[in-house]
Specification:
Pfam family, one: LIP
InterPro entries: AB_hydrolase_fold, Lipase_secreted
Structural class: alpha/beta
Distance between the termini: 25 Å
Protein name: Putative lipase
Largest sheet: 9 strands, mixed
GO molecular function: triacylglycerol lipase activity
CATH superfamily of the largest domain: Alpha/Beta hydrolase fold, catalytic domain
Organism: Candidatus Neomicrothrix parvicella RN1
Shape: globular
CATH topology of the largest domain: Rossmann fold
């Protein structure tokens, strides 16, 4: 869930895998070093246990955000051994507990987990997430794994999908249910700093990728899940679409013992640098842009909302640190564009930072990819994704690109559900992946 608004469209310039699905023992080890130091991240107002503040008056047309049902103590990394974390392999499960699932996930089995990952600076990290398995016994040859990469829920720890019993939204739970019904075990990461201490590295593509890949390795380490095959895929929406693209660029490199089959990429927010400044100008984009400032301040202090925003917008910073999507995103929509940025240079600087930290490189993609977008997506216009697909095709990546009339940013998940099911089934069966690059994005 990430918006840039229909007004931003003016800024946009108009390899297949086969192999058998086997039950061979999965080697889910990574190629990254395992002895990097672990330090608990510096505290941030978005963390569990931070002083509570009263949220400022602001539009809340969608009601309050979902309440977390997990015990915050589960996410307390200070009760873990720092040396053991540093020595563990990426994907090692550090803590787990069963979860009673609700909504579309009712009937499946679930485990809330903390697992070892790595930061973009190549230091140890602890990331939270959830692993889901279909009800009943696994087939003798095992089940494949689908990594689910979620879209924007917020940056406060209470917005972590694993802190709820339905991955925060029933829309996301329904996406996971489709994967479960297809026979996948689902590894659903929260990403760095969402659930665990420190600010969520919102849209930092390296860390989105590492958290997602390591969740797959973690799923292979939970005995109760049952046998797993070597095959795995990634499915992502919005911010998770960027995560899926970033995973695709390094999937074989970081999990060489497994068999990556491709990615389903829904409405990806993969080119925000080019539209960052314009996001503050449209009501649909201001809340997202403010979230990006809050997270990007960790990379450049000049982007701290306390100095980067006008007083009227700064007064609503608690919506970012203590609210979730329902509070943060619409919470700035009623402000005038002139009440947002302290200077035009802030928007330009944010764009440069996002181009560096928070984008995908089409030339590095492996594929195959199924890229889907709703034609009625007002928050993230389809033209952005069409440009991305054009670049992917030019780089020689095998891409099937589909758009859906009448589907908005979230509705594209359900609208593309059957196409995604078919595409994933063919990848598992070793069918040559399709490409419509000759006609897509033109």
């Amino acid at each position: 869930m990430l918006a840039v608004g229909a007004a931003l469209t003016a800024v946009v310039a108009c390899s297949g895998r086969g192999g058998d699905r086997t039950g061979e023992p999965a080697a889910a080890t990574t190629t990254r070093p395992t002895g990097t130091e672990y330090k608990v991240p510096a505290t941030h107002p978005s963390d569990w246990g931070a002083p509570e503040v009263e949220l400022p008056e602001a539009p809340r047309p969608y009601g309050p955000s979902p309440a977390a049902t997990a015990d915050p103590a589960f996410y307390d990394v200070t009760t873990l051994d720092a040396e053991a974390i540093a020595a563990a392999e990426p994907g090692a499960v550090l803590r787990s507990e069963p979860v009673s699932l609700t909504g579309p996930l009712t009937g499946a089995s679930g485990w809330r987990i903390l697992y070892r990952s790595t930061t973009a600076a190549d230091t140890s990290a602890v990331v939270s997430g959830m692993v889901l398995a279909p009800d009943g016994s696994a087939p003798p040859d095992g089940r494949p794994v689908a990594a689910w990469a979620h879209g924007t829920t917020g940056i406060a720890d209470r917005c972590a999908p694993s802190a709820t019993s339905n991955l925060f939204y029933d829309d996301y739970a329904a996406e996971a249910r489709r994967l479960l019904d297809q026979g996948f075990v689902v590894a659903a990461t929260d990403y760095h700093g969402l659930g665990t201490p420190g600010v969520h590295s919102y849209h930092v593509s390296d860390e989105l990728a590492l958290a997602t890949v390591d969740s797959v390795a973690a799923a292979h380490r939970i005995d109760a899940v049952g046998p797993l095959t070597r095959s795995w895929v990634v499915v992502g929406h919005s911010e998770g679409g960027l995560a899926a693209l970033a995973v695709d660029q390094r999937a074989d490199e970081v999990l060489p013992g497994l068999d990556y089959r491709g990615a389903v990429v829904a409405a990806p927010s993969a080119q925000l640098g080019s539209v960052a400044a314009a996001m503050f100008a449209v009501p649909e984009g201001r809340g997202y842009a403010a979230l990006l400032l809050e997270a990007a301040a960790e990379l450049n202090p000049s982007l701290d909302p306390a100095v980067a925003l006008q007083p009227a917008a700064t007064a609503r910073e608690a919506l970012l640190t203590h609210g979730c999507w329902e509070e943060a995103v619409p919470g700035f929509a009623d402000l005038d564009a002139t009440e947002m940025l302290a200077s035009l240079e802030v928007g330009e600087l944010l764009g440069k930072v996002l181009d560096t930290c928070c984008a995908s490189d089409p030339k590095a993609a492996l594929g195959p990819l199924l890229v889907v977008h709703g034609e009625a997506d007002q928050p993230l216009p389809a033209e952005l994704t069409a440009g991305l697909v054009k670049d992917l095709c030019a780089a020689g990546v095998t891409v099937e690109y589909r758009t859906y009339p009448g589907a908005d940013h979230d509705e594209v998940m359900a609208a593309s559900g059957e196409d995604g099911r078919r595409w994933l089934a063919d990848r598992l069966d070793g069918v040559d992946p399709p490409s419509n690059c000759a006609t897509a994005a033109h």
